[in-house]
Write a structure and sequence with these properties.
mainly beta, 4-stranded antiparallel beta sheet, 1 helix
């Protein structure tokens, strides 16, 4: 009898231990699944970004600013949100905190600058306010914690607007008017400020002027009351070339400038608000004889390749390898697969390059070879009215 009781007790104990072990195993499996799910969710968050698109609104049906969910693993996208009707928000900039969007409203003498609250999770944009741009046809703007700085193309001016605590804009705190002209009497009859760009340390602001063939450099004091930008230097570019857009190398030691009127790309060494020319090349093929309309210029996230677009009759994008000394070696000229390749952007992963073809009303998505810099058509297109400006933000 005692033996039977002991056998039963041992069996019960063994069964209890096995049951407990099973529970622990289930717990471990559950924890493993939870970790896997968390990693998957984190991975999904890291590969998806918001793509914001600024458009022209007057010649076709557009609300102005569109927000897409973009997967940088697959290049799949879906419409997420859009602004209420906004006039010609042809260039956009996002705040560092990812909570505000600022846009130009390119509309001749009635041009304005607009501020929006931005909700990355939903892509929603809520209009805050607008201010007169202090010059006709603003075409580029930048921002930091204190100010929004705008380049007005037809007005030939730069304007600085303060930021209020709610993200809305103050009236202009400073307006700077460029002066002069150059040799192209149709396009360079007066100043045409085309871009503003912070130096990497934010101590200077660089401005290109297509009309005067110059780059202007300004010392930047973000907390000044009215003299936020102080003229520091200017550098003359080849007459008739039309400086349009520039970008800094990833290490901040070089500046790359694309000229709209002749297709040149000029390389400068940069240090402490000074530019020294070290190379000039071109985005054009040696035998190209058609109209030129250089537009945008960007460097890949890894800092190894530079890309620049040409509108005119070419509708191409030129690819350069960036050498260790900062100079450029052209490797390829590829079709933009549309007309009017205006702005373009490389997604944060570096896998894809998206070109806004303004005149064919679509954004073409290319796969980028990280080794060679070459572009391959994914076959994917975002169709919308007159896309101009493309920027990525975190969700």
């Amino acid at each position: 009898m005692i033996k039977k009781v002991l056998k039963c007790g041992i069996k019960f104990l063994l069964l209890t231990i096995l049951a407990l072990l099973n529970i622990e195993i289930m717990k471990i499996k559950f924890v493993q699944l939870a970790i896997c799910f968390a990693i998957f969710s984190l991975h999904a968050q890291k590969t998806n970004y918001n793509l914001l698109v600024g458009t022209y609104t007057k010649n076709c049906d557009s609300k102005g600013i569109y927000v897409y969910d973009f997967d940088s693993e697959t290049a799949n996208f879906k419409t997420k949100n859009s602004s209420d009707t906004v006039i010609n928000p042809s260039y956009l900039t996002a705040s560092n905190g990812n909570d505000f969007i600022y846009s130009v409203n390119e509309n001749g003498d009635e041009s304005t600058i607009s501020a929006f609250s931005y909700y990355p999770k939903t892509g929603a944009l809520q209009f805050l306010n607008k201010q007169t741009s202090q010059g006709a046809d603003p075409c580029h703007l930048i921002n930091d914690a204190k100010n929004v700085i705008v380049a007005n193309y037809s007005g030939g001016t730069l304007a600085v607007f303060g930021k209020k605590k709610d993200g809305s804009l103050t009236a202009a705190k400073q307006v700077i008017k460029h002066s002069g002209q150059s040799i192209n009497t149709k396009r360079q009859e007066k100043p045409h400020a085309h871009m503003v760009h912070f130096s990497p340390d934010k101590k200077f602001v660089l401005s290109t002027d297509l009309g005067t063939d110059k780059i202007y450099l300004y010392k930047y004091n973000p907390v000044a009351v009215d003299k936020i930008l102080l003229a520091s230097d200017s550098i003359a570019i080849k007459a008739g070339s039309g400086p349009r857009h520039l970008t800094f190398s990833n290490n901040g030691k070089f500046v790359y400038l694309v000229q709209e009127l002749d297709g040149a790309v000029t390389v400068f060494a940069y240090a402490k608000g000074k530019l020294v020319k070290i190379q000039e090349t071109t985005i054009l093929a040696p035998d190209y004889k058609g109209a030129v309309g250089s537009a945008d210029i960007h460097i890949s996230p890894d800092g190894l390749f530079l890309y620049a677009t040409n509108r005119g009759e070419a509708n191409t994008i030129t690819i350069f390898k960036i050498l260790k000394n900062g100079s450029l070696e052209r490797t390829e000229i590829a079709s933009a697969l549309g007309k009017g390749p205006r702005n373009f952007v490389i997604d944060p992963s570096g896998k894809y390059l998206l070109i806004a073809n303004q005149y064919t009303n679509e954004i073409v998505i290319f796969k980028r070879d990280k080794t060679s810099g070459s572009l391959a058509d994914t076959g994917k297109r975002i169709t919308l009215c007159a896309p101009v400006c493309l920027i990525f933000t975190k969700q």
